[in-house]
Write a structure and sequence with these properties.
The chain contains seven helices and 14 strands. By secondary structure, the chain is an alpha+beta fold. The strands form two sheets. An eight-stranded antiparallel β-sheet has the order 4-9-10-11-12-13-14-8. Strands 1-7-6-5-3-2 form a six-stranded antiparallel β-sheet. A hairpin with a 3-residue loop joins strand 10 and strand 11.
C-alpha cells in the first residue's frame, strides 16, 4: 500500500540495526562540496539502509554530539554551534559501480553559514540578538574571539556534499518529473533525520532536516532548512535530489522561499484558536511563502570507477 504526505515524502515501517561506532570525523579529505568547499565530515559507511538497482542509501541517526566532538567542530567552523547538533547523522546516496555519491550532514551544512554576517545584506535583528550572540560565543570553547557577528539564524545554502569532485553539477532546463512521484508506487524505504536545531534564544527556530523515500524505480530526497524568527521573518531553503534508477544522471533542485512574519500570519484561517500550530509547521509555512530563487542542476554519474 502506498503512503503519501503533504510534501510528497512519506514514511514506511522499514527499520534496520545501526552500528554504535561513532561516524564523526574532522577530515578535509576524500572529495569536496560542489560549492568549492572542502568537506569537514568523513562518514564511516556500514551496511546500507537499502540497496536498489545498483544504488545504495546509507543513513545514520545518532544522539547529539558529545562535548569533545562539539569542541572539535567549533574549532574548525569558527562559530558557536546550534543548541542541538546531530553531527553523526547523515544520508548518503551512492552509485555502487563507480563509488560516486552525494550526502547530507550537519557539519558541512554549518560550514556554509556566513561567518561574518548575513550574505543577503545584513543580520536578522531581534531585541535579544546581541546579548544572545555574546552569551552563545562565551559558552563555546574554541571560539576565542568573534570579530564580527555570524549569521545567528544559521541560514545555510547547503546543497549536499558530492564525491568525487571530478563529477560536478551543471545548470539544466530539466525538471523533476512530478508526475512520476505522484504515482502510487510502494515505498520501499523512508527516513526522516534532523541534522541541527536551535530555538534562537526563544526567538523562533532554525532547523535543518533530511527526508528520503525510495521506490522501485526512483528515489527522492528533500533537505530542508526552516527558519522562523518571531515577528520578523520566515525562510525556507529546499534542496531536492531525484534519481531515476537505470539512468546515469542525478537532478538537483534548490529553491529559496521567504516572507515576513506578518504576511504569513495573515494566511492562517480566521477561526483558528492555536495560531502557533500553523506557524510551527514547516510544511504549511512552505506552501505560503513566495519563491525567491530556483536553480535546477544535473550531474552525469560515472558508470565505473575513475582510474
Amino acid at each position: 500500500m502506498a503512503i503519501t504526505s503533504t510534501i510528497g515524502l512519506a514514511g514506511s515501517a522499514y527499520s534496520r540495526s545501526c552500528s554504535t561506532t561513532s561516524e564523526f570525523a574532522m577530515a578535509a579529505t576524500q572529495g569536496s562540496l560542489d560549492q568549492t568547499q572542502l568537506s569537514l565530515y568523513t562518514p564511516v559507511l556500514t551496511t546500507p539502509s537499502i540497496s536498489q538497482a545498483g544504488w545504495s542509501i546509507h543513513t545514520a541517526k545518532r544522539a547529539i554530539l558529545s562535548s569533545d566532538e562539539i569542541d572539535q567542530v567549533t574549532e574548525r567552523i569558527k562559530i558557536p554551534l546550534p543548541e542541538m547538533i546531530f553531527g553523526n547523522n547523515h544520508v548518503i546516496i551512492r552509485y555502487d559501480a563507480s563509488g560516486w555519491e552525494i550526502g547530507f550532514n550537519a557539519v558541512d551544512a554549518l560550514d556554509r553559514v556566513a561567518k561574518h554576517g548575513n550574505p543577503d545584506g545584513g543580520l536578522v535583528k531581534v531585541s535579544y540578538s546581541e546579548a544572545w550572540l555574546r552569551d552563545k560565543a562565551s559558552s563555546e570553547e574554541g571560539v576565542h574571539e568573534v570579530v564580527k557577528p555570524f549569521d545567528w539564524t544559521y541560514t545555510t545554502d547547503y546543497r549536499g556534499t558530492s564525491r568525487p569532485m571530478t563529477t560536478s553539477f551543471e545548470k539544466t532546463e530539466d525538471k523533476i518529473p512530478l508526475h512520476k512521484l505522484r504515482r502510487p508506487d510502494p515505498i520501499l524505504f523512508f527516513e526522516d533525520i534532523v541534522l541541527f536545531e536551535d530555538e534562537l534564544g526563544d526567538n523562533g527556530i532554525s532547523m535543518l532536516s533530511v527526508k528520503i523515500r525510495v521506490m522501485q524505480d526512483r528515489l527522492l530526497l528533500l533537505c530542508r532548512f526552516f527558519l522562523r524568527v518571531d515577528d520578523v521573518v520566515f525562510r525556507i531553503r529546499d534542496c531536492r535530489i531525484f534519481v531515476e534508477f537505470g539512468e546515469n544522471e542525478v537532478l538537483r533542485e534548490y529553491v529559496v522561499k521567504q516572507d515576513s512574519y506578518e504576511n504569513v500570519k495573515r494566511k492562517i484561517p480566521l477561526r483558528t484558536r492555536d495560531f502557533g500550530l500553523f506557524l510551527r509547521d514547516p510544511n504549511w509555512v512552505a506552501e505560503q511563502l513566495p519563491v525567491i530563487e530556483t536553480v535546477t542542476e544535473k550531474a552525469k554519474v560515472p558508470m565505473q570507477a575513475m582510474s
